[in-house]
Amino acid sequence: EAGVTQSPTHLIKTRGQQATLRCSPISGHTSVYWYQQALGLGLQFLLWYDEGEERNRGNFPPRFSGRQFPNYSSELNVNALELEDSALYLCASSPRQGAYEQYFGPGTRLTVT
Amino acid sequence: SQQGEEDPQALSIQEGENATMNCSYKTSINNLQWYRQNSGRGLVHLILIRSNEREKHSGRLRVTLDTSKKSSSLLITASRAADTASYFCATALYNQGGKLIFGQGTELSVKP
């Protein structure tokens, strides 16, 4: 069984640009979660999607947005990039809604210069 | 602010020794989970303990949960060099769906 995949592995952007990160969940998983792991700030919950809908959102500005497609893959968009957006962005999936274990992808390392 | 606080921040032991990591949290939880992260890569789920459980085992891992003290511990017995990683506790709250709130993590180093 293939695990959660994320692309790209690394992304380098300039301040003010937009970044798009992609995630494919494990087959059969409907819930997708996004987390940011920034140096000194730890792992912070960003967004949760299930069945194409945004179900919960962390304490991040609106320039962080995303969506979930009918095949349950997901996209995270970060607009108007700032230097402090540099971080490892992790995607996770779980088989259904609710407080269950999550399966993480390898992450996308975003660097904003 | 983080829900979970972990202690110690870093732990260095010899192969074969046991490693204990502690996690404290602030509000009532649905369950508490432990994850491992190798060298800034993706997280691997280790174990989930529900709020009505007190102890759980999985291989060399033993997790305890004390809801009265709002704390949990992860014990790794007979550690191996391959256990070297960062370990995170994460809490799932009621009515928050699958949202996890992570602690700052414990960096474990197991020397051969």
How much β-strand is present in the residues of chain A? over 45%
Task: Report on the biggest sheet of chain A.
Answer: 7 strands, mixed
Q: Which protein chains make the most extensive interface, counting residues with beta carbons within 8 Å of the other chain's beta carbons? A: A-B, 29 and 26 residues
Order of helices and strands of chain B: EEEEEEEEEEE
* Unreliable segments of 5+ consecutive residues of chain B: none
SSE class of chain B = mainly beta
Oligomer: heterodimer
- Calculate Rg of chain B over CA atoms: 13 Å
Form type of chain A = globular
Mean pLDDT of chain B: 93
Major sheet details of chain B: 6 strands, mixed
Helix content class of chain A: under 10%
Question: Secondary-structure element order of chain A, as H and E?
Answer: EEEEEEEEEEE
| Number of distinct helices of chain A | 0
- The DSSP helix count of chain B reads 0
Mean of all residue-level pLDDT scores of chain A? 94
The stretches of 5 or more residues of chain A where confidence is low (pLDDT under 50) are none
Distance between the termini of chain B: 36 Å
Strand content of chain B: over 45%
Describe this structure in words.
The complex is a heterodimer of chains A (113) and B (112). Chain A is mostly beta strands. Chain A has no helices and eleven strands. In chain A, strands 2, 4, 5, 6, 9, 10 and 11 form a seven-stranded mixed beta sheet that branches. The radius of gyration of chain A is 13 Å and the shape is globular. Chain A starts with a strand and ends with a strand. Chain B is globular, with a radius of gyration of 13 Å. Chain B is mainly β and 112 residues long. Chain B is 0% helix and 55% strand. Chain B contains no helices and eleven strands. The model of chain B has no long low-confidence stretch (mean pLDDT 93). The interface between A and B is medium-sized, with 29 and 26 residues.
